């Protein structure tokens, strides 16, 4: 697990530790959900490796969102997920804010993959506020009901 995700667990506090562990360690879940399965093992199949162009666009998107959030004064941790921890892992993730008002932002290389995994993210959110917002390749899961300032910053930066 990335060291910066471990730091995020301390930042968001014990109230969301389970969420950070569940979403971070399983990358939005590993119970299969909408992921395709193989005939022989029945387990989820990793998505095909993205092209260098798609991967670079993903890295730019994550870096841009992180910079925007930090500029707005929010604590942020996370980044690209290498290698994918499971077939249902996001390709990148940022944990924003605190236990009182924060969000988990999942980045995917394709909108199709984001849409397929959205129900799994919602199911794995468990006791979190559970409000999901997805646009294209980005899904935001609110850890708790955010303050208006945090909500505005996350939506502006994540979906820019």
Task: Describe the protein in words.
The structure is a single chain. The protein is an alpha+beta fold. Helices cover 41% and strands 16% of the residues. Strand 2 (92-97) and strand 3 (102-107) form a beta hairpin.
Q: Indicate the percent of residues in helices.
A: 40-55%
End-to-end span in angstroms? 27 Å
Number of helices: 5
Q: How many beta-strand segments?
A: 5
| Largest sheet, strands/sense/barrel | 5 strands, antiparallel
Mean pLDDT: 74
SSE arrangement, N to C: HHHEEEHEEH
> Which percent range describes the beta-strand content?
15-25%
| Rough outline | globular
State Rg.
15 Å
Enumerate the spans where pLDDT stays under 50 for 5 or more consecutive residues. Answer: 1-41
The quaternary state of the protein chains shown equals single chain
| Structural class computed from helices and strand pairing | alpha+beta
Task: Briefly summarize what is shown.
The chain contains 5 helices and 5 strands. It is α+β, with helices and mostly antiparallel strands and about 160 residues long.
Secondary structure topology:
Blueprint: H1 3-12, H2 17-26, H3 52-71, E1 76-80, E2 92-97, E3 102-107, H4 111-124, E4 132-135, E5 138-142, H5 148-158
Antiparallel strand pairs: 1-2, 2-3, 3-5, 4-5
Helix pairs in contact: 1-2, 3-5
């Amino acid at each position: 697990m990335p060291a910066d995700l471990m730091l995020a667990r301390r930042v968001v506090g014990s109230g969301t530790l389970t969420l950070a562990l569940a979403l971070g360690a399983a990358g939005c879940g590993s119970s299969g959900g909408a992921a395709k399965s193989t005939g022989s093992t029945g387990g989820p199949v990793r998505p095909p490796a993205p092209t260098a162009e798609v991967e670079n666009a993903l890295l730019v998107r994550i870096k841009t969102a992180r910079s925007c959030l930090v500029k707005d004064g929010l604590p942020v941790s996370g980044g690209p997920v290498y290698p994918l921890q499971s077939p249902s892992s996001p390709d990148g993730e940022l944990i924003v804010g605190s236990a009182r008002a924060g969000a988990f932002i999942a980045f995917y290389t394709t909108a199709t993959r984001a849409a397929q995994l959205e129900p799994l993210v919602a199911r794995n959110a468990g006791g979190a506020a559970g409000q999901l917002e997805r646009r294209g390749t980005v899904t935001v899961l609110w850890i708790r009901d955010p303050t208006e300032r945090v909500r505005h910053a996350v939506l502006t930066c994540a979906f820019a």
